[in-house]
Structure to design on (764 residues):
């Protein structure tokens, strides 16, 4: 089977989908591996390292797409790229399938099997393939480092002959994978950390990291089978906002990580709350690129409002591209290995598997994913 | 006594010499306090806060200089500013007296008493006034944060279902106040830290922070009475370089903090060592602005050499201006309080004091500091 790794073209993307280590493993499994020239540069890997791993370097990007049996990637493709692929080709990447109708239609028309890394379920067996979690984990770390670099104060308490510096107050909204890592990193640095999540079940995890869990009585809330927070009613969002207002005013750093699977994230920090903060304070909006938890955050940018710095950088994991590539690459490899047929030396699309079918969006000219199919049919009717 | 606080004009300087808290204390001691308009802006303090503390806001900078009995500042003045001051006026700030002959001559000619914050001795009683140490402490923290923000890896070890990320290797050269804080901060973040210092006496302090002390046999070394490393012979510097070469090649981050009191810092990381590092590695040169420990570092800037990022930002403490201002301001206040005559409600220049005389560079038209006088006379004769 001919596996191809094109270079990522998205601006600001330094991660690579396959590291030389993983390349070596794929070759050892019997794959013919084609790597686009300079593919690894963003994360500091040279073409020579891939050649040494047994891959062939290809300069012609179009040839790479048209000759591949399996494409391993990070970001979603363009429609033009899909049109270059062979019928029956398999394309694995992030896909954002809830929003990318046009791409899904293109995959369908091209007869390409598209597999979405976002759809890897959160089960014990699939953890090793769960790229959303591996990248969110790194994002949690990066957001704290960004905040520390913009804050005109230090995180730890410091007792000196010239007096004591108080520890920074950090408030983390959302205690999923990214939020928990942000809490852990801020605690490590010596900050005083408080966190909130609409799922009371995570209070214990927050506390076990040494942070305080903010109790807000929202009435009935819960989490999905996938471990995401269920969407709140407008009334519940308002109660949450009011309860957080005080603590936000007293915080040096606020980090928001509230996401709802497949939907626009809720706005949790409004302008009046930002205006209540001390000048020099910092807000990190993890969701800035998908709509934002913070009013006034600008995707991919750092802005100031009333002396408060609002960081909306996005693609957080790409800031630690070397480690992020190792993790993502490992996730991809585990998925490929799990579906590899040793005899045929090929990735087998098996609809009987317990993980794979839920991640397949299109196959053989059809949208096979039930959730996506239902949404698309619903839209077509309305 | 009329105390004046002019605004700092040095580019990139966000710290302020006097915070509103300290302003209040000075007023309570009986000082008449004049603050230049917008003086506190860089560190997030408003004119209103100073007015509330009992200070008067002055818009005319020249008037401020010419009417002051005592000037409290961070950075050295310009010759023009010195010429505005009254005879008998006292000026306290960093002065860099080993290099600023022109300023010393101007102070002498103007009959101003110039007090250098760098000359505060490192004794138990003067610790509370020791601004070099308080700011170096913060610099140690900032340098690690800067490195973390440029490194394409995370500092801590991370064990995940997709494999283990190894901790970053950090090498710190020089274990003075800044070096020790850099070690502590990097350890906090979970890095594997090794450190070296020419003074074997600090090995225990390094180890007590959980870092490894690199043993290099340099023959006879030592420290000055002030706690600084003694300058090495060229042969010793070469031995140190060779011994460090290996560990630098294996490090993700190298932080250099080697300074010799009153002299140019030694070059410890040479280009061939940088070329031996992995692409993506980061070097922080604390001394970039005073000559540099690292070949190719650019003062006030971040540059890349063979894929290695070299950070020479300088004025590190200004990055955490709020905390740095609190510390510096407290150092200044302790010095003023220590020399305050309650009856006269004035700063008294007492040459019988155990701390003050060593910090006075000029007084009543003379260079009174013995060390500086000897250097200047030596230069005049040669």
């Amino acid at each position: 089977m001919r596996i191809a790794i094109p270079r990522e073209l998205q601006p600001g993307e330094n991660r690579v989908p396959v590291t030389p280590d993983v390349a070596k493993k794929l070759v050892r499994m019997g794959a013919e591996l084609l790597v686009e020239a300079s593919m690894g540069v963003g994360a500091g890997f040279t073409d020579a390292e891939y050649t040494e791993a047994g891959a062939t370097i290809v300069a012609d990007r179009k040839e790479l797409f048209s000759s591949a049996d399996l494409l391993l990637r990070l970001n979603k493709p363009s429609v033009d790229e899909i049109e270059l692929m062979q019928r029956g080709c398999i394309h694995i990447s992030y896909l954002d399938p809830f929003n990318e109708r046009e791409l899904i239609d293109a995959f369908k028309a091209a007869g390409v099997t598209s597999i979405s890394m976002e759809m890897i379920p959160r089960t014990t067996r699939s953890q090793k393939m769960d790229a959303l979690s591996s990248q969110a984990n790194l994002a949690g770390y990066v957001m704290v480092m960004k905040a520390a670099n913009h804050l005109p104060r230090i995180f730890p308490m410091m007792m000196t002959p010239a007096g004591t510096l108080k520890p920074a107050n950090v408030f983390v909204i959302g205690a999923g994978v990214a939020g928990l890592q942000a809490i852990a990193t801020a605690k490590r640095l010596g900050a005083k950390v408080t966190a909130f999540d609409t799922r009371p079940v995570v209070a214990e995890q927050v506390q076990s990291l040494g942070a305080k869990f903010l109790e807000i009585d929202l009435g009935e809330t819960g989490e999905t089978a996938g471990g995401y927070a269920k969407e709140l009613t407008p009334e519940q969002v308002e109660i949450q906002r009011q309860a957080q207002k005080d603590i936000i005013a007293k915080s040096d750093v606020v980090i928001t990580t509230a996401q709802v699977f497949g939907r626009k994230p809720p706005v949790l920090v409004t302008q009046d709350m930002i205006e209540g903060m001390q000048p020099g304070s910092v807000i990190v909006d993890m969701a800035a690129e998908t709509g934002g938890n913070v009013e006034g955050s600008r995707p991919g940018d750092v802005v100031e409002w009333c002396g408060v710095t609002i960081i909306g950088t996005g693609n957080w994991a790409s800031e630690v591209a070397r480690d992020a590539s190792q993790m993502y690459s490992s996730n991809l490899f585990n998925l490929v290995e799990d579906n590899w047929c040793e005899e045929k030396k090929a990735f087998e699309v098996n609809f009987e598997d317990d993980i794979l079918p839920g991640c397949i969006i299109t196959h053989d000219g059809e949208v096979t994913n039930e959730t996506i199919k239902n949404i698309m049919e619903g839209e077509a009717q309305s």
